[in-house]
């Protein structure tokens, strides 16, 4: 297992004063306005003159925009505004890539107040400064242009070299996110063990040696409170102060679920990389798996309610988040991660190789109709996944 360095993100809660909270909210709103104005500029130029406006064109106009609005756009970091324009440019490039690939394109949209929550500073020291008061013995601060020195709840040590700094709003909380280069990888000692993992809803994952990692179902646990908050929101008058409070309440509940899911995914992934040198998982297409049942209002598809419930359970389990975190932790720990095609793994007997849909008796039971082998369905699938991954690895080594 090799060493080396990786890129890693560190996220900390900000301890804002009332003035700083108001300044950050104004900063976020001005960046949202800039994003929407740049999008309108591109749309209008192409619709009226057939001209495609690029990032370089809009970046060159920033100094004039700032000069015309010194108490608004001119307050904030020039480089952070360039980052916002690059964010729009990235959305357009992704749109054209989808068009070329023949997928549903999805044209870039204007950002409403609830759909723009992050401002980024591309370089530490340019409009921002991490650990801006190093002489302070008991607290850490980050300096943001136009906001000041903001106290950070730094609950762990930052490693590597801080490259970019971003501030994100979640409900009524603000977080700073540091992207750091040259973070030591810190490979773990070899264990000599390999495992296949089967993703599930009853258990988040089940390993090929029969160890399940529980699925906490955070969204389901908060469903009643979320439903009550959303009903209260629906009764509020648009534009009212009470509606804004209700929106914040719903956003806060969703943010809590998101944090709980992220924390659970980190713990589950860490348990796997500490135990196994080689981890094989299914190469899942989660977007395809969670599509709505086909049909229309006039002629709805079959089992629409059941499919909706399954989609909700899959998304609540957070498979995509877990696999992303697992990939990062495996790289940092020096573990080998292999993705395999999941087709047939749940219907194939891990003992004799017979594949038939009749083998899967229930969601939890597997009984081979050819050899009589019986096992937990998820464990049987995980064994098949592990074998497929090891075969891929041997083939790659032999090539």
Bin the helical content. 40-55%
Structural class: alpha+beta
Return the average pLDDT rounded to an integer.
89
Cα-atom radius of gyration: 25 Å
Our estimate of the beta-strand percent is 15-25%
How many separate domains make up the residues? 2
- Major sheet summary line: 7 strands, antiparallel
Number of discrete helical segments: 10
Strand order of the largest sheet: 2-6-7-1-5-4-3
**N-to-C CA distance:** 21 Å
Shape: globular
Order of helices and strands: EHHHEEEEEEEEEHHHEHHHEEEH
Low-confidence segments: none
Pfam family, one: Cas12f1-like_TNB
GO molecular function, one term: DNA binding
Domain Transposase putative helix-turn-helix: 6-48
Organism: Nonomuraea deserti
Polypeptide structure, described:
The structure is a single chain. The protein has 399 residues and is of the alpha+beta class. It folds into two domains: 5-184, no CATH class; 194-217 and 259-398, 2-Layer Sandwich (Nucleotidyltransferase, domain 5). The strands form three sheets. The protein has a seven-stranded antiparallel sheet with strand order 2-6-7-1-5-4-3. It has a five-stranded mixed sheet with strand order 10-9-8-11-12. Strands 13-14 form a two-stranded antiparallel ribbon. The protein has helices at residues 18-49, 55-68, 78-101, 218-221, 223-234, 241-275, 286-289, 304-317, 319-333, 377-398, and strands at residues 5-15, 118-121, 128-130, 140-144, 148-153, 161-170, 173-184, 194-199, 203-207, 212-214, 278-282, 336-340, 365-367, 374-376. A hairpin with a 2-residue loop joins strand 6 and strand 7 (173-184). Keywords: DNA recombination, DNA-binding, Metal-binding, Transposition, Zinc. This is Transposase. Residues 319-385 form the Cas12f1-like TNB domain. InterPro entries: Cas12f1-like_TNB, RNA-guided_DNA_endo/Transpos, Transposase, Transposase_put_HTH.
